[in-house]
Amino acid sequence: MRYIEPHAHMVSRTTDDYERLALAGCEVLCEPAFWAGFDRSSPDGFRDYFLQLTRHEPKRAAKHGIRHFCWLCVNPKEAEDPGFAREVMRMIPEFLDSPNVLGIGEIGLNKNTRNELAIFEEHVQLALDHDLPVLVHTPHLEDKRKGTRLILDALANFPKLRRDQVVIDHVEEHTVGTVLDAGYWAGMTLYPHSKCSVDRAIDILEIHGPERLWMNSACDWGVSDPLAVPKCALRMKARGHDTAAIRRMLWENPREFLSRSPRFIID
Amino acid sequence: MGGDHPLLDLQFIEARHLLVELAAFLDRCDRHGCTGDFRHRALLDALPLLLEQRTDRAKAVLDAFSDPTDTVASRAAAPVYGAPRPDAD
User: Do A174 and B62 touch (CB under 8 A)?
Assistant: First the structure.
């Protein structure tokens, strides 16, 4: 089955992974800007990263028949240094006209700090200024519930922000309800040890329904599985979900949200 | 399949495995003397939630492992542990 991987960090993955994704049916892949596992030593490190996301990675993906799109930002972890973050943010508009840039992301919170929150809000304003959709990262483990609440409170202070232009990612059972109830899209990340397992993601789908919900692997340099999304599809089938329901989660839903960006044109 | 329900046919062995793994982990903690750690305590405190008659046990466990405060931190001090550290600021 053809599918969209709406969140993957391919700069951290091998060419073999691109081949496996293509063999599994991945035709479209979206890569948010993120923390590379280490703090960059200068804003120019981000310039190179943004060039990688907008020029180099689409070519790697294309060799396997995969369309590559990306999101740009300073990730929440490196946003803890607001002076550094603002320097990087000043260069983002240079890249917003690149044909594969969808919006601003993955912004959000890491340790729920004052500096992270300030830079998060400045990113939201940047997205509004350029009429771009937003992809939000929510914190890990014990910080997720509070961080999600802080993010929702902050977003509520932007009356011009259309909530259906925002996807709040890495939801779990204790955060998905508040995200959906507030009118945002919710992303479920399928991780082996943290975030959602395949079965828990299907539980959330069964409980909350498919409206404004997507799933992703968020595969990166850590413990993660690039094939988590097709594996979830296989599990959905085993649990009695029909082809239409699977197609909705793997293709139609991500396509609906990503089409908020006029650049997201696929066959 | 030998059972009466497809979901149990599909997942009972896996759930059994997870429970045995957790039991073995708690035994291991005893042997290695780490039962005083706040993470061990957090696990024990969450276990009774599994036996409650409710339909949101996963949410309840995640809530139990969540930072209970509402404050915005002044700085990124501690790493994540998976359960709130009692002495965290």
Answer: yes
